[in-house]
Structure prediction request, 646 residues.
Amino acid sequence: MKKLIELKNVSKAFDGEVVLDNLNLDIYDQQFITLLGPSGCGKTTTLRLVGGFETPDSGDIYFDGQRINDVPSYKRQINTVFQKYALFPHLNVFENVAFSLRLQKKGIAEIAPRVKEMLELVALKGFERKNVNFLSGGQQQRVAIARALISHPKVLLLDEPLGALDLKLRKDMQNELKKIQKQTGITFIYVTHDQEEALSMSDVVVVMADGRIQQIGAPTDIYNEPKNAFVADFIGESNIVDGVMEEDLKVTFSGHTFTCVDKGFAPKEQVDVVVRPEDVDVVSVEQGMLTGVVTSVTFKGVHYEIIVDIGGFKWMIQSTDFVGVDEKIGLYIEPDAIHIMKKSEYSGKYGDYSSFSDELDELSDASAVEE
Amino acid sequence: MKQKRTLSGKIVAYPHVLWSVLFIMLPLLFVLYFAFTTPDGAFTFDNIIALGNHKATFALSVSLSLLATVFCFLLGYPLAYFMAQASPKKQKLLMTLLMLPMWTNLLIRTYSMMALMDDAGLINSLLSALHLNTIRMIGTKGAVVFGMAYDFFPYMVLPLYTTISKIDKSVLEAASDLGASPAGVMTKVVLPLSSSGIISGVTMVFVPSISTFYISQKLGGGTFDLLGDAIERQFQNVNTYNVGAAISLVMMILVLLSLWVMNRFTDSDEGGTQA
Prediction:
């Protein structure tokens, strides 16, 4: 695949506060790439640099091999779907979608069928004459997508485009966006703080934190082989515990030595060990590799979410079997369920469920949308 | 929007209703009454017919006020746009500078302009001190237009600034993103989205300009007879109240008509049908 966009050593600060710190990123043609991270991680700034709404303080941005640092946004073959849609309130649906073609002085004979085709693509057939101010959020977002796609850009930037929609509509739009991307073959650069959205839509996920890229990879790689404690915690649920690598394929944590599938670490190297909650089996105390006391059980529909105290460290376990609070249980972990990571600046900050609360999670989600 | 008002809602509205009836509706009815009666109170069209003698006054008033309005717009729009883009601190400073002259009475401002532009005024003294030819300013149309534009300039900028600063920045970015050059963003998005501010600004400069009398008296040196002067003159004599009322009435109708036309003109730009 052809390299379409290249960010080289890009840094950006606002009022002395570093937002992007020496970022390097290659984006390939026809890729669906997602920039994922918490608010303030620099993902939106990265997008705005590519779109031409900001210029980097240092470093270079290339588009198709050309340096585009100083090319203004209206001269870039890159269009954007903005977080709050940014439709033109004085124009109807037709004129909103036709905006870029009107600027190109195309005749109505060419514009009308292309607008019709675009509105069909986003499932808004027959909405031409409607006032955009009276459309629902989902409909406005579709108009914004049609408007951005009609001039056949090489790249479409999407800045949390589904952030303001309700859950059901969000799922529908996720599928639709993925479909549109396949159909048009346009490179999508998608920004979100929603890890589920990122995993389900993207070819490549770029996890960002503190203005730096933490990991780039396919969704399965990011999930199964997180590079550090931040990625492991941000993507899905993770129990992250301190461990010592005894030798290749042998790791000790929580007082037990496990067989694992990782190697290449120094003998006795301090490491972070990740175990996903769904990869832990609940067994009897005698059969367990680890034993602990259940401190809370929450019914989640598909499974129970069980918090277990193992030597003072709270683990999260997802199991379809019910266990009672205060019950002593054994845990069994398969070798391929254990993932070993090198120590990083994020070690020890994440992965303990002692202060875990669903409400807190939801609160932080809501504030991220406000961003 | 039809809504049942609560009792307290009605009570708060009363003072305003009373005010409107006493000081707006009633005077307007008086104007209407005087315009169609003789000094003895008999019904007549003579006052309206007599307006034929004031054709030149109407034409001059409209053209000078229009000119002043155009000047205010051409100077005010870029300023309002610049203000809306500036940092919050700068916006406050510029706003204060803009409002500062309004703390001084309009008449005093006009008098001080006289002092500046008089044949022996500050500007001409300076010119002669530099051995340059003096310029006659007082008594020219230019002085009157300048006076109108100067006095009413803030009324153009304020509504423009308010509407322009309300335009969502991301809409401007979207236009640029879709290929609009800075000039394109201006004509295709900023201007149409600030149309309500343009209408308010134009109205708030044009209406006081067309009815002013002191500006033309002081800066026009008494050479020009504008509508405001004509009305003032008629009302200084009890016997010509009726002609004065007729001029006022026609002027009001003219202003209302031009407002209606402008509103129609911008309405056609707005969105489409409701979803």
